[in-house]
Sequence to fold (335 residues):
Amino acid sequence: MKKKLLNILKITIFISIGVFLFWLVYRKQDIGEIKEALLQADLKWIILSLFFGLLSHLSRAIRWKILIKPLGYNPKIKNLFFSVMVMYLTNHAIPRSGEFVRCGIVDRYEKIPFSKLLGTVIAERVIDVLMLAILTLIVFATQYSVILDFVNNNPGIIENISNIFNSIPLIIGVSLFGIIILVILFIFRKKIVKTTIYKKIEETLKNFATGFKTVISLKENKLAFLLHTIFIWAMYFVMIYTVFLCFEDTRNLPVMTGLTIFVLTAYGIVIPSPGGIGTWHFIAIETLFIYGVPKDPTGNTFAIVAHESQMIMLVVVGFISLILLPILNNKIQKK
Fold:
């Protein structure tokens, strides 16, 4: 009962953060103007955008299978795809929790150890972070003036980051706490290694390391893994750029504008707001404004259409996946 209440509290807190940030971004926007902009928009492009999004998620499932196979398992693509979609659904409730959920689903239906799966997921994320870093460097190199304008227009962002890193008491406190923990572990190391908890942690870490090494030691399908990685990120970009075609003010924006929006908004997802609600919108609107797209109503409407269409798709397909997982797997077991 306590665990359920704690989970409900977590979900409530994160959703409240998202709603509050969304309200901050749109509190001065006239709802009537957004409705008018939506009526004038060519929303058929949204269907194509959602299709590209689904292709990226399917590719992510196939890429995950490439990582899992060297561990000696051959999971079904459908279970991997369903688990990925449930991951996105869960992330909209509690950010970053979906990775554990998708590993748990595959552990349950494919009988693959959770810790090994988690190792492959972390390896995936390392590759994705590298891809985002490469795209960020490209954007900084080609759109430096735009990035500079964004920072100048929003000095509070840099100030908040600087305050965190310049907090000497916080740094000293965290360092001392870490040193104390290490000293305690060193003093009682002989007793600790004999405990059941230590042995379980050691086994989990070994499985985790085994899963993580699959990327480094991937002997087969290296090209397929690379192509899927490129395809996933290409679909992410096309998914956003297609929404540009919905509006008159964004229809003729160059590709690099789309790439800049895509890269900068990707960092909005990292902030602990469910699915980047509020933060994604803020970054998209401010960046479009620098490129000459008015905030009211085009920028605001674009952000809503681009973000909420994908969010609705992820939530709907995530729930469908959650329903189909036990049904389809029970049929197979009966056969």
